[in-house]
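My main concern about presentation is that the manuscript never shows what a single data entry looks like. The format is easy to grasp once an entry is in front of the reader. For illustration, here is how one protein appears when written out as sequence plus structure tokens:
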Amino acid sequence: MAGKPVKRAKTAKRSGRTSTPPAKKRPGKAPARAVARRLPPAAVRIGEILARLKQAYPDAHCALEHTSPYELLVATILSAQCTDARVNMVTPALFAKYPGPAALAGAAQADVEALVQSTGFFRNKAKNLIAMAQAVMAQHGGEIPRTMDQLHALPGVGRKTANVVLGNAFGINAGVTVDTHVTRLSNLLGLTTHQDAVKIEQDLIALVPQDDWTLVSHLLIMHGRGVCIANRPRCGECVLAALCPSARPT
């Protein structure tokens, strides 16, 4: 009696490849900041955020060493794409040779370049410093101007630089200084959704009381350098963890 036909195992199509089931994806760790926690709106949280930062950094101030509006203006121009620490290493010799706008206005480009070379982009910075000093002498009688429009009109002076000088040299809260730390922390804290400095400044101006416009930059910068460090934030030690939608669980 004929036996039952033997069922043959299914084989892959003749393509030279064997069929294998797709490997199961192992559950990996989700990005730490992929999902933001739901917290009250920024306008509700900003008061407590400022209070906690002020308590944590009671001595928050401008890190650029200066003794006059002129020195702060020069230092801030040099700080573009450069650390404050490096600028502070360069400015003593620069100020010793050019103690004011009159001296700097008559400086030779090569001499200024040699003094500021380590700050990067030194040729353009030296050119702007001399042109700025010449404009201050010609248009403002050697005095650093005290308005946003007048400062912004000087060579090498953008809104960020003008905000630094107005707020820290003259005590005038005309705006908020937005640097890389302020940009990063403002986004992490949910105070803005923008990366453009002008739009971030507008968002912060709408949230922060005007009396704190200058101070908030220093607070965020100090917190960004000491605790909320890029790529390795210390959320477990952060005084803002409970108020931050991006805080990592501890």
User: Anything to note?
Assistant: Residues 4-19, 25-34 have pLDDT under 50 and may be disordered. The radius of gyration is 28 Å.
